[in-house]
């Protein structure tokens, strides 16, 4: 089995979901498609269970924050088909006031920790997750540190300059 | 003359067949020359400490041959490396499990001040959770610097009054950290 061409992927997804799954770009040959949170479970299940595609390996779930966009928080799924060595990236964009998305743990057990990490750093709430706790940061933290809502460090401070540390 | 260097006897009264000194000094001498360190090594400074323990620098010369991995028998807690906020309670528990008298040495920029990790997840110096006796600067400090810090600890141990740990001032210090 060779690598599946991106055009074939786009065609198959369009045939199954119509204009509900839109191709975004193909940077570095990796196809990225956008969908909605209502459809994400169906899209992932289709990609995983389709006889030809077989995207059985969930590489990663993460998120991204674009403060300037109306739908500022994107949840990103990377899938890998081990049989055809094809990769695909699925994105869902959410508004900051309602960051809820259905969990992927019923498709992949491995999604458990990935979703906990995404919740920990971006505050994305995965509905239906069996145990949505912080995974890396301290439990009593109230902020989501990877969101771009914190002021940058004062560039003029000198108390951590190299020469204080013998470097 | 041999090359063997002996530790000087403390100040005292000497005569034929006897030597009298204060109990403080005798105990200080014994403690300072058999410190049992507990290495709490989390990152690069820990590697530097391994070099300090190895044959070339040989921390065993100072009576620190027995590295105590049980806090109960340790005198000196050597914190080497970045302590994240999540590690803070663990470090504190190790400190609480050590028996008095106990000393703490913060080795390297991270343990002393958070170092380059000026971040939401890193403790900006271990003195936020436990009292510290000696800070060793450097990133990472060379073994010589660690030995220098160790000798500074020895000086503290040698001159410490045996009543110091019962004084109200010391109790106040511990109370500041919420201990007892």
Automatic annotation (TrEMBL), chain A:
Keywords (A to Z) from UniProt: Cell membrane, Membrane, NAD, Quinone, Translocase, Transport
One annotated Gene Ontology cellular component of this protein: plasma membrane
GO molecular function terms attached to this record: NADH dehydrogenase (quinone) (non-electrogenic) activity; NADH dehydrogenase (ubiquinone) activity; quinone binding
Xref: Gene3D superfamilies: NADH:ubiquinone oxidoreductase, 30kDa subunit
Subcellular location per the Swiss-Prot or TrEMBL entry: Cell membrane
Recorded topology in the membrane: Peripheral membrane protein
Top EC class of this enzyme: translocase
Enzyme Commission number, as recorded: 7.1.1.-
Catalytic reactions of this protein: a quinone + NADH + 5 H(+)(in) = a quinol + NAD(+) + 4 H(+)(out)
N-terminal signal peptide: none
Domain NADH:ubiquinone oxidoreductase 30kDa subunit: 34-155
Coiled-coil regions listed: none
Principal place of residence: membrane
A Pfam family that the UniProt record links to this protein: Complex1_30kDa
PANTHER family for the chain: NADH DEHYDROGENASE [UBIQUINONE] IRON-SULFUR PROTEIN 3, MITOCHONDRIAL, NADH DEHYDROGENASE UBIQUINONE IRON-SULFUR PROTEIN 3
Protein family (similarity comment): Belongs to the complex I 30 kDa subunit family.
Function: NDH-1 shuttles electrons from NADH, via FMN and iron-sulfur (Fe-S) centers, to quinones in the respiratory chain. The immediate electron acceptor for the enzyme in this species is believed to be a menaquinone. Couples the redox reaction to proton translocation (for every two electrons transferred, four hydrogen ions are translocated across the cytoplasmic membrane), and thus conserves the redox energy in a proton gradient.
Quaternary structure, from the entry: NDH-1 is composed of 14 different subunits. Subunits NuoB, C, D, E, F, and G constitute the peripheral sector of the complex.
NCBIfam families in the cross-refs: NuoC_fam
Listed name of the protein: NADH-quinone oxidoreductase subunit C
Organism: Mucilaginibacter terrenus
Gene: nuoC
TrEMBL record, chain B:
Enzyme class: translocase
Residues in NADH:ubiquinone oxidoreductase-like 20kDa subunit domain copies: 44-152
Cofactor: [4Fe-4S] cluster
Pfam family, one: Oxidored_q6
EC number: 7.1.1.-
Keywords: 4Fe-4S, Cell membrane, Iron, Iron-sulfur, Membrane, Metal-binding, NAD, Quinone, Translocase, Transport
Known partners and oligomeric status: NDH-1 is composed of 14 different subunits. Subunits NuoB, C, D, E, F, and G constitute the peripheral sector of the complex.
Protein name: NADH-quinone oxidoreductase subunit B
Organism: Mucilaginibacter terrenus
């Amino acid at each position: 089995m060779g690598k599946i061409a991106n055009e074939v992927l786009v065609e198959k997804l369009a045939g199954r979901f119509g204009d509900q799954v839109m191709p975004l770009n193909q940077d570095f040959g990796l196809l990225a498609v956008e969908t909605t949170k209502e459809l994400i479970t169906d899209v992932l299940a289709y990609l995983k269970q389709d006889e030809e595609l077989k995207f059985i390996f969930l590489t990663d779930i993460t998120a991204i924050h674009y403060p300037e966009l109306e739908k500022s928080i994107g949840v990103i799924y990377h899938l890998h088909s081990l049989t055809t060595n094809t990769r695909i990236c699925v994105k869902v964009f959410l508004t900051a006031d309602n960051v809820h998305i259905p969990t992927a743990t019923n498709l992949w057990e491995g999604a458990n920790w990935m979703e906990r990490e995404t919740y920990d750093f971006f505050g994305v709430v995965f509905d239906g997750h069996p145990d949505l706790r912080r995974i890396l940061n301290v439990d009593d933290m109230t902020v989501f540190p990877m969101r771009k809502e914190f002021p940058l460090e004062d560039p003029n401070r000198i108390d951590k300059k190299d020469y204080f540390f013998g470097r | 003359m041999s090359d063997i260097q002996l530790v000087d006897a403390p100040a005292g009264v000497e005569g034929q067949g006897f030597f009298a000194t204060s109990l403080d000094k005798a105990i200080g001498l014994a403690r300072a020359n058999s410190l049992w360190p507990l290495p709490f090594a989390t990152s690069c400074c820990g590697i530097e400490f391994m070099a300090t323990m190895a044959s070339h620098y040989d921390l065993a010369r100072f009576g620190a041959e027995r590295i105590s991995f049980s806090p109960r028998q340790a005198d000196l807690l050597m914190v080497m490396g970045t302590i994240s906020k999540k590690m803070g309670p663990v470090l504190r528990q190790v400190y609480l499990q050590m028996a008095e008298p106990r000393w703490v040495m913060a080795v390297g920029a991270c343990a002393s001040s958070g170092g380059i990790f000026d971040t939401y997840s890193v403790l900006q110096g271990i003195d936020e959770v436990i009292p510290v006796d000696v800070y060793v600067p450097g990133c990472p400090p060379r073994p010589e610097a660690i030995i220098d810090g160790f000798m500074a600890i020895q000086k503290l141990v040698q001159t410490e009054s045996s009543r110091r740990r019962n004084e109200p001032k010391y109790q106040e210090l511990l109370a500041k950290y919420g201990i007892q």
